[in-house]
Amino acid sequence: MKQLLSFIKKEFNHILRDKRTMLVLFGMPMVQLIIFGFAITTEVRNAKIAILDNSKDEITQRLITRIESIKYFVIEKTINSSDQIENAFKSGRIKLAIVFQQNFQNELFHTNRAQIQIISDATDPNQATTLANYVSAVVTDFQNDLFELNKIPYSIDTEIRMLYNPQLKGAYTSVPGVMGLILLLVSAMMTSISVVRERELGTMEILLVSPMKPWLVIISKAIPYFVLSIVNVITILLLSTTLLDMPINGSLVLLFSVTILYILCALSLGLFISTVANSQLAAMLISLVGLMLPVVMLSGYAFPIANMPDLLQWLANLSPAKWFIIIIKNIMIKGIGIEGIWKETLVLIAMTLIFMLISIKRFKIRLT
Question: Which residues in the chain land under pLDDT 50?
Fold first, then answer.
């Protein structure tokens, strides 16, 4: 028994001295708990909305104040005509618009009936339905309050319109998300593993002292995965349009151009990972844990980013998949051109250049 206790003590000492083991044992559960606890929720908060008040009377102002007072909505802007609604949605500044009919108060008090139109961005069907239900609930509560006050059965009808995806198909969310996930994992993970494998086998140094320039060697490692990623893109688009009825309302050339940029960003990220990892296993773990979790949780693919704390929202901005998914939805579903996605495109270009420059610098340090 004494020997057993001594071996147990020795094992504890080994664990406590190893910082990486301690990080895995205690750091990873805490990080996962925080991310999963704040990210995994179907509740939508701080959704930006627009108001078109064609009546501008006391009742509409009271109802707008009621809507603004709850935590689910932030009134981003007040629009003056129905023509501005489409532009507000295409700019990505709002997720929902509320339209009050003309003479709302007069209609309500004289006919006991008035109408509100709720227009929701259904590129994310779950979020669109949730937001529309929130507004309907607020309107119902307001209607009940009016009845209790005046003892008159006022009726406020809500007409719900789902913009871009009236049938609320789940493919409108899953296809852009799957594209972002697959392209990032395949390009980044496989590139990092292939480079690290050469280093593990001792052949990378041989390749770099060959007559071919070092940067051409690195590019030669990335080109096959670039080609395979393009094949993946074509396959996904064919399946999504033929089997899932996913539209491509925007420019196909623009779609492929941005996708190629995203693949280059993922490849450069893979090269960066290969400069950090010392083994194929380490490269695979970094790619899977460091990329899959942020893509699923922090890209807006599965859960709304607006729900998350400010720290997680800031971390979400570091995920290339977030910007790519926004771009793909805007092109394929909303039919937006480069004028509506130039900011996200610039972010992807900046990320690609940063990852590439860091990778080249670290390769020079470690492999010359």
Answer: 365, 367-368
pTM: 0.80
Four-way CATH pick for 47-163: 3.20.20.30, 3.40.1710.10, 3.40.50.300, 1.10.3470.10: 3.40.1710.10
Report d(CA 245, CA 242) in Å as an integer: 6
H-type alpha helices, the chain:
2-17, 19-22, 28-39, 58-69, 83-90, 104-111, 125-150, 171-184, 190-201, 204-208, 214-242, 252-276, 280-287, 293-298, 310-316, 320-332, 342-366
The string of DSSP letters for 124-157 reads: SHHHHHHHHHHHHHHHHHHHHHHHHHH----EEE
Handedness of CA 79, 84, 85, 87 (dihedral sign): negative
Cβ atoms of 307 and 39 within 8 Å: the answer is yes
Contacts of 250 (CB under 8 A, 6+ apart): 330, 331, 332, 334, 335, 336, 337
Asked if 119 and 161 touch (Cβ cutoff 8 Å), the reply is yes
Query: Cα separation of 260 and 253, whole Å?
Result: 11
Contact 48, 305 (CB under 8 A): no
Give the pLDDT of residue 328: 92
What's the pLDDT score for residue 126? 84
Residue type, 152: I
Separation between Cα atoms, residue 131 and residue 190, nearest integer Å: 40
Q: Which of 80, 75, 83, 143 is nearest to 114 (CA)?
A: 143
In the chain, the amino acid numbered 365 is I
96-100/113-121 β-pairing: antiparallel
Lookup: tokens for 143? 């209607």
Output DSSP code: residue 112: S
CA 333 to chain centre: 15
Coil/strand/helix, residue 294: helix
pLDDT tens digit sequence for 298-332:
777 777 777 777 777 788 888 888 899 999 999 99
Per-residue pLDDT of 259-280, as tens digits, reads 999 999 988 888 888 777 777 7
Instruction: Check: CB of residue 297 under 8 Å from CB of residue 36.
Output: yes
Q: Where are the domains of the chain?
A: 47-163, 171-366
